[in-house]
């Protein structure tokens, strides 16, 4: 799992460098709102798995 996270971070970093190098806007939402949106999606998915696993298995 750690390898996947590091690979995702490296990929995102390289995309940021490439986009800035060719003078394009970064393909990301505003920093805090974007991070919170991703965290919300992750937590929602985990909550669904927990509810389905606990009550419907």
Provide an overview of this structure:
The protein has 57 residues and is mainly alpha-helical. The chain has one domain (2-55). It is 79% helix and 0% strand. It is built from two helices and no strands. It has helices at 2-21, 31-55. The longest helix is centred in the C-terminal third of the chain and has 25 residues, at 31-55.
What is the multimeric organization of the chains shown? single chain
How many strand units? 0
> Shape from CA axes?
elongated
Q: What is the element string, with H for helices and E for strands?
A: HH
Spatial gap, N to C terminus: 26 Å
Low-confidence stretches: none
Tally of distinct domains: 1
Please, how many helices? 2
Brief synopsis:
The chain is mainly α and 57 residues long. The chain has one domain (2-55).
Question: Any key phrases for this structure?
Answer:
2 helices, 79% helix, single chain, mainly alpha, 57 residues, elongated
């Amino acid at each position: 799992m750690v390898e996947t996270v590091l690979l995702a971070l490296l990929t995102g970093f390289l995309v940021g460098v490439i986009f800035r190098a060719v003078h394009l806007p970064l393909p990301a939402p505003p920093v805090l709102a974007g991070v919170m949106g991703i965290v919300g999606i992750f937590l929602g998915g985990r909550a669904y798995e927990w509810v389905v696993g606990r009550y419907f298995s």
